[in-house]
Each structure stands twice: as C-alpha cells, then as structure tokens.
C-alpha cells in the first residue's frame, strides 16, 4: 500500500463525526463536521492540485498585482519546481503554465491548475502580497502573455 494512499485513508477516517463523549458543545461539533465536509469537498473537486496550491500559499508564493488608477489586477504565482518560475494568472480563466494547457484546456481532466487554485484560495483568505503598478506597466506585463 502506497504512503499517499494510506495518508488518504487516514485523512478520510478523520472525517467522521466527533464522538458525543468528546467535550465539545453541540455548536463546536457542528463546526468541526462542517469544516471536514468543506475539506472533503475541496479535495474531491481539485484533487492533487489542492495540496500543491496550499503549499504555494504557505510559502507566500502568491502576489496580487494591481494597476493604478484602474484597480485592474492579475495574480503572479510562483511554481514549485527548482526553477521557481512565476506565472501570470487569472484565477478563473488563464494561467501561463504547461499544466493549464495540458490538464485543463487540452484534456479537460482538471477544473484549474494549482496556480489558479492558489490564487483563488489566497484571494479568499487574504494571504497574498500586494504590489501596485501603473496601468501602463500592467499592460506591458499582460502583453507578454
């Protein structure tokens, strides 16, 4: 049995309801269950990309680049490879990485790549670095995509 399979089994077994004899109030037990359901849902939707995206976020690899004065923005997300490449990313529509074109666009096997997911999660959690540039500079960045 592979270690990743065992980790998955351990994780799934942790999704059970807390026992009533545990010293949690009803509200606390309910929040624990809801949290576990959300985790399972995210795992089922995004699979392998969820863990990779959270690693990127933990390493502070997401930057939100905002153009001034328009307020338009794009995310720059660091890859996990040795090269530490940075990818420009629209969380719902586009990423410049190979996985986006191969797994998302060509094969349709994933909803999004790990960079898009990292940008989405970081945006929701507010765990990104913010960089402000002129609209002209943002346009130059976008023209290189």
From TrEMBL:
GO biological process: double-strand break repair via homologous recombination
Superkingdom of origin organism: Eukaryota
GO cellular component: Shu complex
Stated name of the protein: Uncharacterized protein LOC130505412 isoform X1
Lineage: Eukaryota, Viridiplantae, Streptophyta, Embryophyta, Tracheophyta
């Amino acid at each position: 049995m592979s270690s990743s399979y065992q980790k998955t089994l351990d994780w799934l077994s942790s999704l059970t309801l807390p026992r009533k004899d545990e010293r949690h109030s009803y509200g606390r037990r309910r929040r624990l269950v809801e949290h576990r359901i959300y985790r399972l849902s995210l795992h089922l939707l995004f699979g392998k990309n969820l863990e990779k995206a959270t690693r990127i976020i933990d390493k502070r690899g997401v930057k939100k680049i905002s153009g001034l004065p328009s307020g338009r923005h794009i995310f720059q997300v660091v890859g996990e490879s040795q090269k530490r490449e940075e990818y420009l990313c629209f969380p719902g529509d586009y990423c410049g990485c190979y996985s986006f074109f191969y797994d998302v666009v060509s094969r349709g096997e994933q909803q999004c790549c790990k960079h898009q997911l990292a940008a989405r999660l970081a945006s929701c959690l507010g765990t990104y670095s913010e960089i402000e540039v002129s609209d002209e500079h943002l346009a130059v960045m976008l023209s290189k995509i």
